[in-house]
């Protein structure tokens, strides 16, 4: 048990030693214009939502708590996003309350 805890401690130190290497912020465009959400901060998620092998963009917006879905219509190396649609559940827009 002691050796397991010691190994876990050493592993945690090695993970904590290297800070994450984040890219500089950049604007993402839709239909050739930067995506603007208005009030608040964006909460983006890049994932292959529709299962076509291309990484799509889901953005949570502060106003109304809605989720925007931008389908990638190009490639993973050079994504192209068109108009968004609000994500829905049971035929209604998903709306998450803040707080």
Overview of the structural elements:
The chain is α+β, with helices and mostly antiparallel strands and 99 residues long. It has a domain of 60 residues. It is 16% helix and 24% strand. The protein is built from 1 helix and 8 strands. Strands 3-4-5-6 form a 4-stranded antiparallel β-sheet, with no helix packed on it. The protein has a two-stranded antiparallel ribbon with strand order 1-2. Strands 7-8 form a two-stranded antiparallel ribbon. The model has no long low-confidence stretch (mean pLDDT 82).
Mean pLDDT: 82
Provide the structure class: alpha+beta
What's the number of helices?
A: 1
Q: State the helical fraction.
A: 10-25%
Beta-strand fraction estimate: 15-25%
Short note summarizing the structure:
This protein is an alpha+beta fold.
Keywords for this structure?
single chain, 99 residues, alpha+beta, four-stranded antiparallel sheet, 1 helix, extended
List the helices and strands and how they pair.
Blueprint: H1 2-17, E1 29-30, E2 33-34, E3 43-47, E4 56-60, E5 67-70, E6 85-86, E7 88-89, E8 92-93
Antiparallel strand pairs: 1-2, 3-4, 4-5, 5-6, 7-8
